[in-house]
Design brief:
This protein is mostly helical. Helix content is 74%, strand content 4%. It has one domain.
Length: 186
C-alpha cells in the first residue's frame, strides 16, 4: 500500500488516492517537520536557560514567554499530520474492538469523528480570525515591555493555518474512509 502501512477497516486513506490527498499529506508533513525542528530549538533554548541560570547566574530573558506560546504553535503545526496518519489521541482499544465485530460501525464512528473534528477546527479558525487580523493591524505583542516582547501575529497565524489544514484533513479522511476499507479488504 503506497504512503501508508496501516491496515484494517477505518485505516487512514492512502495519500496516492487523489491529488488532494497528496497535497494535504505533503502540507501536513511539512508543517509537522517545522514543528519538530521547533521542538528541538525550544529544547536547546530551555537547556541553555537552565545552564545559564544555574551555572553562570545569567538566565535567558523571555524563555518562559517563548515556551508558553511555542507549545500551542507546535500543536497546531503537527495536528494535521496526526489526523492524516490516523494517530490522533482517542480510545483506540474501543474502536478496534468494535471494528473486529462490526467493521461498518467502525467506519461510521471514524467518519463521525472526522466530521466532528472538521467542525471543531473550523470553529477554531472562525473564532481566531478576528484576533489574528487585529494582532496584525495593531502590532500586538506579549511579554514585559522594556524587558522582553515578541509579536503575537506569527503565533496566531500558525493557529489559523494549522486549524485550517486540520479541518481539511478531517474532511479528506471522512470522504475516503470507505476507499481505504475496500482496499484493505482485498
Amino acid at each position: 500500500m503506497s504512503g501508508q502501512d496501516r491496515t484494517g477497516p477505518g485505516a487512514s486513506p492512502s495519500f496516492a488516492q487523489a491529488p488532494v490527498g497528496v497535497t494535504l499529506g505533503v502540507a501536513a508533513a511539512v508543517l509537522s517537520s517545522i514543528g519538530t525542528v521547533w521542538i528541538a530549538g525550544l529544547m536547546f533554548l530551555v537547556v541553555a536557560d537552565v545552564i545559564g541560570r544555574n551555572f553562570m547566574n545569567a538566565p535567558i530573558t523571555g524563555v518562559a514567554e517563548i515556551a508558553g506560546r511555542s507549545v500551542v504553535a507546535i500543536v497546531f503545526l503537527q495536528v494535521s499530520h496526526a489526523i492524516m496518519q490516523g494517530r490522533l489521541t482517542r480510545a483506540d482499544f474501543l474502536i478496534r474492538g468494535i471494528g473486529a465485530r462490526l467493521p461498518v460501525l467502525r467506519t461510521t464512528l471514524e467518519r463521525g469523528f472526522s466530521i466532528f473534528g472538521a467542525v471543531v477546527f473550523a470553529l477554531i479558525v472562525w473564532a481566531s480570525w478576528g484576533k489574528t487580523m487585529s494582532s496584525w493591524t495593531t502590532a500586538e505583542f506579549f511579554g514585559v515591555q522594556g524587558v522582553f516582547t515578541i509579536p503575537t501575529f506569527p503565533f496566531r497565524a500558525i493557529t489559523i493555518i494549522g486549524a485550517t489544514l486540520a479541518c481539511l484533513t478531517c474532511l479528506y479522511r471522512a470522504a475516503h474512509l470507505d476507499d481505504s476499507s475496500k482496499a484493505d479488504a482485498s
